[in-house]
Amino acid sequence: MSATEIKIAIGVSNRHIHMAKQDMEILFGKGHEPKMLKHLSQPGQYASEEVVALLGPKGTIENVRLLMPLRKKTQIEVSLTDCYKLGIAPVIRDSGDIEGTPGLTLVGPKGQLTLKEGVIVAARHIHLRPKEAELFKLSDGDRISVQISGSRALRLDQVLIRVDPSFASELHIDTDEANAGAVKNGELATLLFTKEVARADRPLAKV
Amino acid sequence: MSATEIKIAIGVSNRHIHMAKQDMEILFGKGHEPKMLKHLSQPGQYASEEVVALLGPKGTIENVRLLMPLRKKTQIEVSLTDCYKLGIAPVIRDSGDIEGTPGLTLVGPKGQLTLKEGVIVAARHIHLRPKEAELFKLSDGDRISVQISGSRALRLDQVLIRVDPSFASELHIDTDEANAGAVKNGELATLLFTKEVARADRPLAKV
């Protein structure tokens, strides 16, 4: 590794749901408490035992897991591969930006629910803590590139930088992106400070 | 577009099978003649009406189409997404290089067949005619990069150059790669002559 290379762990996101309490109660029953299955790499987040089915106009995907904690609005994150299977238009968005996105029907053990919006293909992004962001001269909202090496080497552009003290530093990509690069969860990518974001005041740093 | 940009049409390959005559006869019956469904972009190649099921240790994929003409050895091209569904190890190879690759079971209307090898994830590649290759100073076997623009912009590296008079010029990627870049069949990518292959005698050319 050269002195100017910064590596980051890759977190591969499979399809999942961030759920609002009122929606969970429709699907799992009033007063239902989600059960912890396993901790995720982001502190305070966990995969729950609860899964639901996604029903689109063209197809169904079973066993889609709920990630906790609960959110104000239900957001369903799928891949483009999933969108084609479900028969819904893929809309690439940053997490939380769901206005005007497609909806679909969720089926749980106690009920079902048709959402008018909330299905996104999450834009690739990097979680950084403020100290790391400062070291790299990056700010929340910046977009950079990352290099994946190996037999299916590729450079992902337009990777959104998100900065928060609660984060663990990680590059989040979906299964299509991971498979295009033939990488798995926990492997490393290299941060690239491309000319779109390179500035005189943003030198490469070593961690 | 700058004077130094060369664009190429993207051909997205879904899972498919190139089949040997003796294997087709096991699956579809002795003397079976494949029926033409539609021409492919590569001259002389066509999708047949015939489909088979792929049976792996972990899962099944139905309706996988045979592409013609017949070949000497059966080769099954799938995505990494498919490999995980089938439960077989993904092996990325250039087309034709199937020695030591995983096998699986094919099921047709008249029989089934378990292959010891032949399942590959096809390495991304570009088909060029000799005149185009000459213009771009590229040779069969070279590897270059291509840029995909848009909301999921990415650069694919290690793209194999294949040169043959029978080809139509096209970048062939699989569904995982297309979905990672949010591109569809027939859209355009830009050829990049990266430093790995850049040489004094290989200037950028315009078509």
UniProtKB/TrEMBL annotation, chains A, B:
It is an enzyme of class 2 (transferase). Pathway: Polyol metabolism; 1,2-propanediol degradation. Its EC number is 2.3.1.222. Keywords: Acyltransferase, Metal-binding, Transferase, Zinc. Signal peptide: none annotated. InterPro entries: PTAC (IPR008300). GO terms for molecular function: acyltransferase activity, transferring groups other than amino-acyl groups; metal ion binding. The keyword Ribonucleoprotein does not apply. Its cofactor is Zn(2+). It catalyses: propanoyl-CoA + phosphate = propanoyl phosphate + CoA. One of its GO terms (biological process) is 1,2-propanediol catabolic process. The keyword Coiled coil does not apply. PANTHER family: PHOSPHATE PROPANOYLTRANSFERASE. Belongs to the PduL family. Involved in 1,2-propanediol (1,2-PD) degradation by catalyzing the conversion of propanoyl-CoA to propanoyl-phosphate. This is Phosphate propanoyltransferase.
